[in-house]
Amino acid sequence: MYTMIFFDIDGTLLTEEKELPKTTKLAIKELKEKGHQVAIATGRAPFMFKDLREELKIDTYVSFNGQYVVANGEVIYKNPLHKETLKSLVEFAEAKQHGLVFMDHEDMRASIEFDPYIEESIGTLKFAHPKHDISYCEDREIYQSLLFCKDDVEHDYIVTYQDSFTFVRWHPVSTDILPVGGSKAIGIAKMLQHFNVLPDQVYAFGDGLNDVEMLSFVGNSVAMGNAHEEAKRVSKHVTKHVAEDGILHGLHLVGLLK
């Protein structure tokens, strides 16, 4: 049976310190040697995990939480944010003095020169504060934007743009902005159509709120020991913490490795 296994990155493949455990790297190598299709499903942009893909020799992935899907190096699905509505959101955020980051598959730019919330949250991914270019979203496809504010003021955005955008918080001072209804599950569904694979032949490992739809969709779901409680609730299995060989333990748990 042709089996696909999707791995989230932050908190799943990588520890909080953004390190790849040795046991995880060896486990993925063994999965590939057994003939399984190994893929990544992340909220990150492709340029943000190029080194990881090269280290693990993976060229199949769902990025931007499902908005940009690549199978064996070929782009098979794209779902950018609506440009005119994004322009409206830029003005809305500007009036509230909240920063934004615009992301395409090649790079990212910030709506303002410097924002401590951007510095803080992007810094946890080991990236520097993006360069300032508020026009970056005008002449290219933006697959995901990041809004920088605390959750107590996010409600105004959700209500105003509920018909256009989905907001998924990933950090205390930052939330992902996706096309309405966008999720890793949608991206994975496009991937399964491409490879002619059924959901019950699919495994997924994740830890965050942006993994909930993915973990609910696939036939075999594994939440990390460090996962958000909602991710654990929808998963069939819960493995150990990412830093405690959680991936290897989880693969043993579901019988993919012995």
From TrEMBL:
Keywords tagged on the record: Hydrolase
KW Hydrolase (keyword) present: yes
GO cellular component annotations of the record: cytosol
GO molecular function: magnesium ion binding; phosphatase activity
Source species, domain of life: Bacteria
Any matching Pfam family: Hydrolase_3
Keyword Hydrolase included in the entry's annotation: yes
Protein name: Cof-type HAD-IIB family hydrolase
Species assigned in the record: Anaerobacillus alkaliphilus
